[in-house]
Input
Amino acid sequence: MDSDFWHARWQADQIGFHQNEINPYLVEYWPTLQLKGQGRVFVPLCGKTLDMIWLLDQGHAIVGSELSPVAVEAFFAENRLNPEIRQEAGFTRWSCDRVEILCGDFFDLTPTGIGRIDALYDRAALIALTQAQRSRYAARVTELLQPQTPRLLVTMDYEQQQMDGPPFAVSTEEVRKLYQNGFFIEQLANTDILGTQPRFREKGLTALSESVYRLRRL
Output
């Protein structure tokens, strides 16, 4: 899953991973983070997700990270936002009011570049990465955020040998392994979704579930 793969997917509009509605897990479980005040929310590998609009409507400021300029341009255009665009070291920063997206390689982000973050929302980042990339991603997130930053994580799980990702299977065991050092990991939901996902059944999956986790510092 190198950068060329994702650039090609966006350029060819092969974005079956994009949801055309707000994620229901976000609406249901975001309040469990119990954020004080409005705060800045980090959305890694954000694409053009409408979840950022929902978070804006809750009063938050958004910092997204996205590799594809096609995705970033589409987000602002489709939501009728007129961004300021400026080049920074390794990134292009698109910003409008309380939303900004850093377009470039996630692994090149720095704490200074993203600024203070009060919460993280990950619906499509961890499951977009191979197993080798996921450990690197989790370590990088830990470097970018303050230890006390709460996180809401959504994953998918299935028998990986039945289908090539993305999205990749991420088990509860792996989530705990990735974030075991210093975090209390609470599984808020585990839902069987195979019956509502015909495209995954057609690919040969015999079971498919989604899980939601809340991560808090011990």
Q: What stands out?
A: The helical segments are 3-11, 24-29, 51-57, 69-78, 111-114, 131-144, 172-178, 198-202. The longest helix spans residues 131-144.
